UniProtKB/TrEMBL annotation:
ABC transporter domain location: 9-230
PROSITE patterns recorded: ABC_TRANSPORTER_2
Entries under SUPFAM superfamilies matching the protein: P-loop containing nucleoside triphosphate hydrolases (SSF52540)
Gene Ontology terms, MF aspect: ATP binding; ATP hydrolysis activity; branched-chain amino acid transmembrane transporter activity
Cited PANTHER family: HIGH-AFFINITY BRANCHED-CHAIN AMINO ACID TRANSPORT ATP-BINDING PROTEIN LIVF
Keyword list, A-Z: Amino-acid transport, ATP-binding, Nucleotide-binding, Transport
Entry protein name: ABC transporter ATP-binding protein
Organism expressing this protein natively: Pseudofrankia asymbiotica
Top-rank taxon, per record: Bacteria
GO BP, sorted A to Z: L-amino acid transport
Keyword Repeat: no
Homology family: Belongs to the ABC transporter superfamily.
UniProt keyword Nucleotide-binding present: yes
Length: 235
């Protein structure tokens, strides 16, 4: 599983940013089937920019993104058709539609989404905009996982949520990885993400400053958290 050639999604020397100015510089990382990779880093480190560029929502400024071993510049829409799932940072439920309709517009069967998150069953007729933050994240996660993505990219899934719900979401991602999906998780909660992850990267000021196994990161959690807070790194 650790053979580089098995990567399904990979960044190689990636530069990315806005208005042609890179804020992500020379980032190389890969996601393999069956693993959860967590990208940690302080605010503004470039985590979301990296994720959006891997997703095809933002054009790269240098280096390359590879999908199943081939360089790609495909649009987000095309990558989703090819098996990419994305849970963006912002709440992206359609507020005026019901939970059921939000699930129906996903790429996968509604029943499968509900099997993954039975908590959503009693909420099916409710307008998605009326759900709590945690319920909305469950809805987005259920919808993304029901499509059985080859790779799932999730941005700050835990943002502002109670630890119990974060654990529930992380377990769902672990389940998807155990069924063969590659998962890349951008996170601010190092502890809960590392509890389910296989490998980790730490980004600071747009560059990877550390990468290794999640076990190693867990064993050096204090130093990882210092790094996450933008202080010294030397894990
Ligand atoms: N739409 C944008 N236009 C211009 N600059 C942006 C835009 N979005 C982000 N940036 C800048 O790019 C840099 C990296 O931001 P990014 O959102 O990727 O970081 P992050 O690690 O995800 O941080 P956070 O946890 O705060 O979201 C920051 O300096 C940010 O101000």
């Amino acid at each position: 599983m650790s053979d580089e050639s098995t990567a399904v999604l990979r960044a190689r020397g990636l530069f990315a940013g806005y208005r042609k100015i890179p804020c992500v510089r020379d980032v190389s990382l890969d996601v393999r089937p069956g693993e959860i990779v967590v990208v940690l880093g302080p605010n503004g480190a470039g985590k979301t920019t990296t994720l959006l560029t891997l997703a095809g929502a933002l054009p790269g400024l240098g280096g390359e993104v590879q999908w199943r071993g081939n360089p790609t510049k495909a649009s987000l829409h095309r990558r989703v058709r090819d098996g990419l799932g994305v849970i963006p940072e912002e709440r992206s439920v359609i507020s005026r539609l019901t939970v059921h309709d939000n699930l129906r517009i996903g790429q996968g069967p509604v029943e499968q989404a509900l099997d993954l998150f039975p908590e959503l069953r009693p909420l099916l007729r409710r307008r998605a905009g009326l759900l709590s933050g945690g319920e909305q994240r469950m809805l987005l996660t259920a919808r993304a996982l029901a499509a059985q993505p080859t790779v799932l990219l999730a941005d700050e899934l835990s943002l502002g949520l109670a630890p119990k719900i974060v654990t529930r979401l992380m377990q769902a991602l672990r389940g998807a990885a155990d069924r063969g999906a590659g998962v890349l998780l951008v996170e601010q909660h190092a502890r809960q993400a590392l509890a389910v992850a296989d490998r980790a990267y730490i980004l600071q000021r747009g560059s990877v400053v550390w990468s290794g196994s999640a076990d190693e990161a867990r064993q050096n959690l204090r130093r990882v958290e210092r790094a996450y807070l933008g202080q010294d790194v030397g894990v």
